[in-house]
Write a structure and sequence with these properties.
Layout: H1 2-7, E1 14-17, H2 24-33, E2 38-43, H3 46-59, E3 68-72, E4 82-83, E5 86-87, E6 115-118, E7 131-134, E8 143-149, H4 171-191, E9 192-202, H5 211-221, E10 225-228, E11 245-247, E12 251-252, E13 255-256, E14 265-267, E15 276-283
Parallel strand pairs: 1-2, 1-8, 2-3, 8-9
Antiparallel strand pairs: 4-5, 6-7, 9-15, 10-15, 11-14, 12-13, 14-15
Length: 286
């Protein structure tokens, strides 16, 4: 899958997967950081957390399970706690605030340091299905790399022969979900160490959920952040069989976007790919 490849964490890195379920991308991150690294996988929904743990434990060797730390909570509420004497979220996330109560969300922020234990609900006693997750929102040290594979309207996965794939969609839903995406992205940036990298991705085609979300953060943080150029893979735009790869949009329906928005990557759906958007941000050492 594209986003973890573009994030490209190094062996030994401390990584956050902010919206981790169902877990396929998390396993790629674990493989990249190796036994010397740490991958914090966060998910807001308990049932999706169960799927996440099962995916990780099915695809990751048991002797590497210790690399993974499971967190149940709202990604917008995660904090670093004291680091060099101050909270990384001091001053607040401009877009932070309300707990997401949208479809599939737990709608609850966990304040305590307690640890919960979940099971698959079938009375199984297999150790791999009895895992612990942390419900504290305090994370400790900042991260070398963060993946925000954000909830979205799913326009890149719509199948016109399957009404269930688009029944949820409306212009109002796009506006609502884009607010959540901004909040997640801004908080992820606050959790990132200087010099660290952050990948923001969606499986939608809407500029309102893609270019406009990223542009707002770039405009707000100015010289403190850069949008890293992503070359379309395997030979570039227009390569054989890869016409569905394109750069980020500069304009759409009369709206103008930043020149560097072309550094992002768009994937248009075909028989091989779902529609996708990926942007890679670097927090500068300023």
């Amino acid at each position: 899958m594209i986003p973890p490849v573009i994030l490209a964490p190094r062996p030994g890195d401390r990584v956050l997967d902010m919206c981790a379920a169902p877990g396929g991308k998390s396993t790629q991150l674990v493989e990249a950081v190796g036994k010397a690294g740490r991958v914090v996988v966060n998910e807001v929904d308990r049932e999706r957390m169960m799927r996440l743990v099962k995916t990780v434990e099915r695809l990751v060797p048991e002797d590497v399970w210790g690399v993974v730390e499971y967190r149940l909570g709202d990604g917008r509420m995660l904090e670093l706690g004291d680091w060099e004497g101050t909270s990384a979220n001091a001053g607040g996330c401009e877009h932070g605030g309300n707990t997401w109560n949208g479809e599939g969300g737990a709608g609850k922020t966990h304040e305590s340091e307690e640890t919960d234990v979940w099971s698959d609900g079938k009375g199984t006693s297999e150790p791999q299905l009895q895992r612990q997750y942390n419900t504290s929102r305090i994370l400790g040290m900042p991260f070398d790399a963060i993946l925000v594979d954000a909830p979205c309207s799913g326009e890149g996965t719509i199948n016109l022969s399957l009404p269930s794939s688009y029944r949820h969609w409306s212009p109002q839903f796009v506006t609502k979900i884009s607010r959540l995406q901004r909040q997640l992205l801004y908080n992820a940036y606050a959790l990132l160490k200087p010099g660290g990298t952050l990948v923001y991705s969606t499986c939608t085609l809407s500029p309102q959920e893609n270019e406009e979300v990223v542009q707002e953060l770039l405009d707000d943080y100015g010289d403190n952040v850069e949008l890293v150029e992503l070359d379309p893979p395997f030979g570039g735009v227009g390569g054989v069989g890869l016409a569905n790869f394109s750069r980020g949009l500069r304009r759409h329906l009369g709206k103008e976007y930043r020149r560097d928005m072309e550094n992002a990557l768009r994937v248009f759906p075909d028989e091989d790919y779902e529609g996708f958007f990926v942007a890679k941000l670097r927090k500068k050492n300023i």
